[in-house]
Every structure is written in structure tokens, then in C-alpha cells.
Design a protein that fits this description.
With 346 residues, the chain is an all-alpha fold. It has a domain of 236 residues: MetI-like fold (Orthogonal Bundle). Helices cover 75% and strands 0% of the residues. It is built from 13 helices and no strands.
Length: 346
């Protein structure tokens, strides 16, 4: 009967398997300590966000469940307090009586899509110009960033003067267009003013992304015979994509909350340019805080969903890159021992 003896465990074997327990415990303690330190460092920011964002959001959500003060049909007297109506405000907003809400919703969406799209194209062009090395580049950069530095209220008054019936815009095109009244021309005026002001913001963030791209990449592509268009499409755009997506995220969130520019440039209660923020402000200014809170909550949900979509897009891109690099490294580690064995055998 053959007896199989297990060879004694060598020092390398103990190091590889038997002594892993203490090492893993030390790693777990180090990880827990790092987690506690991270939580301690982040806690002031979380407290500030809870006070500035979470508490007002909860108060708005609570206020949206109450109606406006008015005549009580049961008693015939004016109510002293706001009545609890539950979800009636949301039903009125989203139902057949919510035509004004849907108009403001589509205006907000239209302004966001058009302005962010134009600002992205113009901002990328500005970034490419500011990135080139030429004499007077600092002056050009300062001139491009001036519109972003102008306060929105001042910008609205400036463009209101330009779009007057006897203003510069009509003098240039040779026609008499009432830009600041009802109609599609009012939308065009708001879009022009918004793009002029905020396109430099996207240009500034894209410029920061361009400056971290190594010059050797462009030199190698130029040696290989790649044209300027191919270098932009296959090198510049993919490498600057994270900065561009972040800039578009910030601009989308800002455009969805657009209030001051159309309010100053065109005016309040204009059907063609009224946004969700303007609608909520109108309800609150008329002491209808319940419907105003409901409008604010719906706008918050809309902005949150758009921001979540952008964050998921950014996160999926980063995880995909990391996963691809990991597979490549694993493939290299798996192929190396096979090559060594082949060398030894030969």
C-alpha cells in the first residue's frame, strides 16, 4: 500500500499562505483608519450641504403639500393658515390646468439644448484659439473672458439696449424687429445674449483640458501624416472629453435654472420666454407659496435627473477605461510566464 507523504511547508509557502492572516488584518485596520479619516475630512462639507441644500429642499417639499390662503368655502371667511391639500398642487400643475407649466417646461428645455449646444461649439473654438502660441495671446484670452466676468443683470440691460426697436441690432440688419416682445424673436434675443455671456466659460474649462495634452502626441501624429482635422477628431477631442463633459454639465444645470437674463431682457409673464424659475417666482410673489414650492420641487427633480445622467455618463467612461487597462495588464502578466517557459524548454 503506497503512502503519500505531504512535503513539509517551506518558508516560501508559509510566506505565501500561512502568514497572510496578520498581513490582511493590518491592511484591514489601515483601510478602516483611512475611511475614518476620509469621513472626518468630508463631514464639514456634508454638514454645510445639509444646511444649505437638504433642509431647504425638505421645507419646499413640505410647503408644496399646502394650498394658498383664500376664501374657505365651508365657512365663507378668509383662512388664517394655509390648508393642507396633499398632492393637489402637483395634480393641478401636471393636469389640464397646467398649460402654463408645460409651456415653461418646453421653454426651459429649448433654451438649455440650444444654448448649451452653441456654447459648446463656440467654446471649443475659443479654447483652440487661446491654446495656440502667437503674439498677443494674453490679450486675446482676456478679451474672450470679459463677457463671463460681466454680471448677468448688467448683461441683460446691455442686450436690452442692443435689441431696442431703434437699437444696434435693427440698425445692422436694416429691419424693425421688436425683439423684446412676444414671439420667436424674443427667444432668439435670449439665446444670443446667453451664448455671448457663457460660451467663454466652456472655453476656459476646455482650455484647461488642452493644456495637459502632451505635445509629443501631436508631433507623432504629424510625423505619421495625420491632417489637422484628423488630429482634432482622434487626439484632441477624446483627450479633452472629460473636461468638456464637466463644462457641459455645469452649463446644463445653470441653463435649466435660467431666470435673471430673460426676466431682465424681455420681462416677466412673457409666454414665449417664461421658464420654470420665472414661473415659481411669479407664484411666490403673489403669495401662493404652495404652488410655488411645487414648481420648485419639479424643477429640482428635473435638474437632478439631468445631472444624474451626466454623472452616470462620466462614471461609465472612467470605469470602462480602468477595466480595459486592467485586462491589458492581466494579459501581459499571463503571457510572460508562458514565454519564460518556452525559453527554458528551448
Amino acid at each position: 500500500m503506497a503512502v503519500t507523504k505531504t512535503p513539509p511547508e517551506t518558508g516560501a509557502g508559509r510566506a505565501a499562505g500561512g502568514d497572510r492572516g496578520p498581513v490582511n488584518r493590518r491592511r484591514a485596520r489601515a483601510t478602516a483608519g483611512s475611511g475614518r479619516m476620509a469621513a472626518l475630512l468630508v463631514s464639514p462639507t456634508l454638514v454645510v450641504l445639509a444646511i444649505v441644500v437638504l433642509y431647504p429642499t425638505l421645507m419646499a417639499l413640505n410647503g408644496s403639500l399646502y394650498g394658498a390662503k383664500g376664501l374657505d368655502p365651508k365657512t365663507g371667511f378668509i383662512r388664517d393658515t394655509e390648508p393642507f391639500v396633499g398632492l393637489q398642487n402637483y395634480a393641478d400643475i401636471l393636469g389640464q390646468a397646467g398649460e402654463r407649466f408645460w409651456n415653461a417646461f418646453w421653454n426651459t428645455t429649448f433654451f438649455t439644448v440650444v444654448t448649451v449646444g452653441l456654447e459648446t461649439l463656440i467654446g471649443v473654438g475659443m479654447a483652440l484659439i487661446m491654446h495656440e502660441a502667437f503674439r498677443g495671446r494674453g490679450l486675446v484670452r482676456a478679451g474672450i473672458l470679459v463677457p463671463w466676468a460681466v454680471p448677468t443683470a448688467i448683461s441683460g440691460l446691455l442686450w436690452r439696449w442692443i435689441f431696442n426697436s431703434d437699437g444696434i441690432a435693427n440698425a445692422l440688419i436694416g429691419q424693425q424687429i421688436l425683439w423684446t416682445t412676444e414671439g420667436f424673436q424674443a427667444k432668439v434675443a435670449v439665446i444670443v445674449a446667453e451664448v455671448w455671456k457663457t460660451a467663454p466659460f466652456i472655453g476656459l474649462l476646455v482650455l484647461a483640458g488642452l493644456q495637459v495634452i502632451p505635445k509629443e502626441v501631436y508631433e507623432a501624429a504629424r510625423i505619421d501624416g495625420a491632417s489637422a482635422a484628423r488630429r482634432f477628431w482622434h487626439i484632441t477631442l477624446p483627450l479633452v472629453k472629460p473636461a468638456l463633459l464637466v463644462a457641459m454639465l455645469f452649463r446644463c444645470m445653470d441653463a435649466l435654472r435660467m431666470f435673471d437674463l430673460p426676466y431682465i431682457l424681455v420681462g416677466a409673464q412673457k409666454h414665449s420666454v417664461e421658464t420654470l424659475s420665472m414661473l415659481a417666482h411669479h407664484e411666490a410673489s403673489n403669495v401662493r407659496f404652495g404652488p410655488a414650492s411645487a414648481y420648485a420641487v419639479l424643477l429640482f427633480l428635473y435638474v437632478f435627473l439631468i445631472a444624474l445622467a451626466f454623472v452616470r455618463l462620466l462614471g461609465a467612461d472612467l470605469i470602462g477605461d480602468v477595466g480595459a487597462d486592467t485586462h491589458k495588464r492581466k494579459g501581459r502578466r499571463l503571457r510572460i510566464p508562458a514565454l519564460r517557459r518556452a525559453e527554458v524548454t528551448s
